[in-house]
Design a protein that fits this description.
The strands form three sheets. Strands 5-6-8-7 form a four-stranded antiparallel β-sheet, covered by helices on one side. Helices cover 27% and strands 12% of the residues. The protein is an alpha+beta fold.
């Protein structure tokens, strides 16, 4: 067999040795994400790799209003776990302060350990965990992909302890009775329409249309305007000048 006859045989043998998807140096999830010309309906791209958005997040991408950043206000330190710097939209903060005061009058303490988080922040969470060797799919079981967390709206609050244990606290029982009086709802209840596992600690302010432009000067917190007040503390996030805040846990 001459050289010209050998070449097709060698190429065929080499192709058989390639991993599925035909790209060396990628794991099975990355090859599936690349799609081989079959792109899924919804994807997230991190560090040059495109990942399919899995259920239950697919179909629930969050559209963040353009005015969100300029409407963020730092929560009073006494309402955050350990005095962390955490931001909410001013409209949500007004109601949260009133709700926390009403709860305190009945001996219930409401403390936030997370609130506003941007898509950039969520991406940093994923990047950090991907670098640890976790798969995109496994991270998505517990953390919303970038662009899918409702915390980016500046209306959602995670209350301490942000775990299933919160569902057994007097604070949770109080919220079930009174939160709607202040515009807050349990986003991911036991039978939520998102199909997401129960998150009793996650509550979200339902902003009335007429209140969007009128919350104005009534805020009880500090305006989150710069690095001296609300700079990201997690490595790999947006850095000085952003309106990111310290957070306790990597959550939805």
């Amino acid at each position: 067999m001459n050289r010209q006859q050998c070449l097709p045989v060698l190429l065929a043998l080499f192709a058989l040795c390639l991993p599925a998807g035909g790209v060396l140096g990628q794991n099975s999830e990355q090859r599936a994400a690349a799609g081989a010309g079959m792109q899924p309906a919804e994807t997230v791209r991190i560090d040059g790799i495109t990942y399919p958005v899995p259920a239950p997040w697919a179909g629930h991408r969050v559209r963040v209003p353009a005015e969100t950043l300029r409407c963020l206000v730092l929560m009073p330190r006494e309402l955050t776990l350990g005095g962390m710097e955490i931001s909410l939209r001013e409209e949500a903060l007004l109601s949260f302060v009133r709700m926390a005061e009403a709860a305190r009058a009945e001996g219930i303490v409401l403390q936030a350990d997370s609130a506003y988080r941007s898509a950039v922040y969520q991406e940093a969470i994923y990047r950090r965990n991907l670098q640890k060797g976790l798969s995109f799919q496994s991270i998505a079981r517990h953390t919303a992909p970038p662009g899918y967390s409702r915390h980016a709206l500046g209306l959602a609050v995670d209350l301490h302890p942000s775990s299933a244990a919160f569902g057994r606290t007097p604070a949770y029982a109080w919220l079930r009775r009174h939160a709607r009086e202040y515009g807050f709802v349990e986003t991911y209840g036991k039978a939520n329409s998102f199909g997401i596992v129960w998150e009793p600690w996650h509550w979200e302010y339902q902003m009335p249309e007429e209140g969007r432009a009128t919350a104005g000067e009534q805020g009880r917190g500090r305006r989150a305007e710069g690095p001296a007040q609300a700079t990201a503390k997690m490595p790999g996030t947006t850095g000085p000048g952003s309106k990111e805040t310290t957070q306790k846990k990597d959550r939805n």
